Amino acid sequence: TGYDVRRLSETVGIPFFYSASYYPGKYILRSALPYSTSLRNMLEPDKHFLIVICIFIVCIGVVFWKQTDRIGKSVVRLREFARKADRNEPIDEDVYYSFPKNELGDISKHIIQLYKHLVETKEELVNEQEILIAQKEDQARIKRQLTQNIAHELKTPVTSIQGYLETIISNSDLSEEKRTMFIERSYAQSNRLTRLLKDIS
Q1: How many Cα atoms are found within 13 Å in the side-chain-facing hemisphere of 33?
Q2: Quick one: pLDDT at residue 44?
Q3: Dihedral (C-alpha) 174, 178, 184, 188: value to the nearest 10 degrees?
Q4: Residue 16 belongs to what H/E stretch?
Q5: What is the pLDDT of residue 57?
Q6: Could you give the CA distance from residue 75 to residue 99 in angstroms, rounded to a whole number?
Q7: Could you give the CA distance from residue 106 to residue 94 in angstroms, rounded to a whole number?
Q8: How far apart, in whole angstroms, are the C-alpha atoms of residue 193 and residue 159?
Q9: Which of 34, 55, 99, 160 has the greatest number of C-beta atoms within 10 Å?
């Protein structure tokens, strides 16, 4: 199987265009035409056709380049987004809108939406934790204040009772009138202490 543009015929002594085609199991088809100017013109490639083919190839190349360039830019933007997300760097809003309107662009936008939702949820959790910590600190502060106030309020009647009783015990020659007055004051302070304990409970 093959062809030869100018094969010299040993029989006739002039060049021929010669071709042979093999059909398996059947036969070989051979053909020969004298190589003349008309045949040469017929066998020469059409220049207009070649120009059209070249223009078509260039157009196809430009279209493919545009498409691959768009895909390449989407991949580069997505890679840049992944790098920033990995380092917890702020994501530009322009990145979200700069993807082309194709399948890769839709997937990229969806990934960025999921990431933004994740970041917002994380920020909300951090804010809630800060609020909880502040509430706990307030509760601890109120508890300290309450404990200090209780201690201060209880200290006054207890100190008064102790003072009156110590005076009665340490002064045996105390008059009955003074002794009775100190006991009544101690009783009044004990009643005050009872009311304070009731208020606390």
Answers
A1: 12
A2: 66
A3: -100
A4: strand 15-23
A5: 94
A6: 9
A7: 15
A8: 11
A9: 99
For residues 1 and 60, give the distance between their C-alpha atoms in angstroms, rounded to a whole number. Answer: 33
**Mean pLDDT per 10-residue section of the chain, whose length is 201 residues:** 74 81 85 72 70 91 85 76 75 63 74 81 90 93 88 86 88 85 89 86 80
- In one letter, which amino acid is 126? V
Residue 124 to residue 126: CA distance in whole angstroms: 5
* Residue 9 tokens, joined: 């015929």
d(CA 77, CA 88): 16
- Residue from 137, 133, 115 nearest 125 by CA: 133
Q: How many residues does the chain have?
A: 201
In the structure encoding, which two tokens stand for residue 60, read together? 């196809």
Assigned token pair, 62: 């430009």
Output the pLDDT for position 131.
93
What is the SS3 assignment for 24? coil
The counts of H helices and E strands in the chain are 5, 3
